[in-house]
Design brief:
It catalyses: ATP + H2O = ADP + phosphate + H(+). By secondary structure, the chain is an alpha/beta fold. The protein is about 45% helix and about 15% strand.
Length: about 550
């Protein structure tokens, strides 16, 4: 067999080499050339270029899959810093189950109260391969259970939530695409999911953190028993607030709005707040001041509310009561409560909130509870004791966080204060510019009754029933709250019986009021001198009127 042409050429190139000396000359010439080439490369090429060339030459001959690729990991914690939730963590938490619920064998599932669909969640340590365009990434959920819950400045939320995290791993060459495309895609997907299944939430503070619960209050502006002009003024103010983002920016004001709702108990303050929530479709943060431990805790509570939310502080006139922290031990899920064992309003609220649907809440022998008998006396005693202690947070601190520099840490927020006694509020709270709109909810009058009659009995005017005009006349002469009128209308589904009972109730109320006024008038007339003497006796000696004989 004849050798190939290439082999012939290769052998012919060495045909002239006849001796060992000739071989040495070839080797010497080759070595000299390589030394000169190496010297030239070292002298004229920068180290970075030399390293790049050598790396590529090695990869051609010694490359193995994955040998030179570097894996990058991004850690996504539940909180970015003290008290500030990581929105990306919340997005990934909802994004992952939606992507893998039909692909993986091990998942956490559950049925949440008020939800119709089954909820999915990933388990700790589970990995999930995800694809975005032409790249692959790996998601891992890590959860470390800890019994520690130390409330310090650096860790006011305890350790559990801080140690829950997602880890996103990918090839280093995809770094830019992950940060610029993949992460925004997850956030946009999360926002679309939330908008599609928007459920209002009411948040309460438990253990220093906001805890959400679903809010399904049926109140709307159409159902509110209040003056139509005032109702329309509130709606117009809310609409104006929503569309004036650029206006607030132009005039240099934080994009927030404050409402002070005041009036006697039963005039519909809570119903109005619920109607505002449903109208705006904003989540609610119900701040119980009795849960606030210090100015730092107050700062975190206000700062961790989200944009497009409503911060509610009810009964702001009772703020002094919240300074007593002697009974802040929370009860751990008992099945039976005694009022005597509940130390503050937040514990009572937690007890009521954890009751299930289709249940009966029983409070026996309520007259035996000191709070229902000697409330005013206890408040005075608590204030006397508190005056001897150091102040943990004050009204000025609260106002600073809701109306000072901290109020600009967020946008499109609404703050609502409620009170039964506006006359007891500090002037700093009700000054112009503090609360933008003051809403006075008074007793039920003719216009409010028309709304209640329509809601409860389907009566839409005086032409539908002859007693309507009589009731409207009685309401103008008596002080009855919408809650009382509604309770009377609920006693019977028959319109004749229900309205007849309301007429009798209003007549009795009117007669009782006239009798009380008559008795008071006679007493004042006969005891005017005695009352004056008593009033003078309560004055300091320097301010008592001098008696001239």
């Amino acid at each position: 067999m004849r050798p190939s042409l290439s082999l012939q050429r290769f052998t012919s190139s060495f045909s002239n080499i006849q001796s060992a000396s000739s071989w040495f000359e070839v080797y010497a010439a080759f070595s000299t050339s390589m030394i000169l080439l190496r010297t030239a490369v070292n002298d004229f090429l920068p180290p970075a270029i030399r390293s790049f060339i050598i790396s590529n030459i090695k990869s051609l001959f010694f490359h193995r899959p994955g040998q030179f690729s570097q894996i990058i990991s991004l850690q996504i914690n539940g909180y970015w810093e003290v008290g500030q939730k990581n929105e990306l963590y919340e997005a990934v938490k909802d994004y992952m189950p939606a992507k893998i619920c039909h692909e993986y064998n091990t998942l956490r599932i559950g049925k949440l109260q008020g939800k119709e669909n089954i909820a999915f969640a990933v388990t700790s340590g589970q990995k999930f391969e995800d694809a975005f365009e032409d790249m692959k990434v790996t998601w891992t959920f890590n959860s470390v259970t800890s019994q520690e819950n130390v409330k310090t400045i650096g860790n006011i939320y305890g350790n559990n939530y801080e140690k829950n995290m997602f880890v996103l791993s990918f090839d280093e060459k995809h770094r830019d695409k992950v940060l610029e495309s993949s992460i925004p895609y997850v956030l946009n997907t999360y926002k679309a999911m939330k908008e599609g299944e928007k459920v209002l939430k009411i948040h309460t503070r438990t253990g220093g953190a906001w805890t959400p619960s679903e809010l399904r209050h049926p109140s709307t502006f159409e159902k509110l028993a209040m003056d139509p002009e005032l109702k329309q003024a509130i709606i117009d103010d809310l609409n104006r607030f929503l569309r004036r983002k650029e206006f607030y920016k132009r005039v240099g004001k934080a994009w927030k709005r404050g409402y002070l709702i005041y009036g006697p108990p039963g005039t519909g303050k809570s119903s109005l707040m619920a109607a505002m929530v449903n109208y705006l479709n904003f989540d609610v943060y119900d701040l119980q001041l009795s849960h606030v431990q210090s100015c730092l805790d107050l700062e975190i509570a206000v700062r961790t509310t989200t944009n497009r939310s409503i911060l509610v502080i009810e009964d702001i006139d009772c703020i002094e009561e919240t300074h007593d922290r002697s009974k802040l031990q929370l009860i751990s899920q008992p099945s039976y409560y005694k009022l005597s064992s509940i130390g503050c309003d937040s514990q009572l609220m937690s007890a009521v909130r954890t009751t299930s649907n289709r249940s009966i809440l029983v409070i026996e022998d309520i007259d035996c509870n000191e709070e229902t008998q000697k409330r005013s006396t206890q408040v005075e005693d608590q204030m006397l004791q508190f005056s001897k202690k150091s102040v943990k947070f004050t009204l000025s601190g609260l106002l600073n966080y809701i109306d000072g520099l901290w109020s600009s840490c967020g946008e499109e927020r609404i703050i609502i204060f409620t009170t039964n006694h506006i006359d007891k509020l500090d002037p700093a709270l009700i000054r112009p510019g503090r609360m933008d709109m003051h809403i006075n909810l008074s007793y039920c009058k003719a216009q409010g009754f028309k709304t209640l009659a329509s809601n409860y009995l389907g009566i839409h005017g005086s032409h539908d029933h002859p007693l309507v005009k009589e009731i409207e006349g009685l309401l103008e002469k008596t002080e009855v709250t919408p809650a009382v009128v509604a309770e009377e209308l609920m006693k019977n589904e028959n319109a004749d019986i229900s309205l007849g009972g309301l007429v009798n109730f209003l007549k009795r109320k009117k007669m009782a009021g006239e009798h009380d006024m008559k008795v008071v008038g006679e007493g004042q007339e006969g005891k005017g001198d005695d009352l004056q003497v008593k009033e003078d006796a309560n004055l300091p000696k320097s301010k008592r009127p001098k008696i001239v004989e």
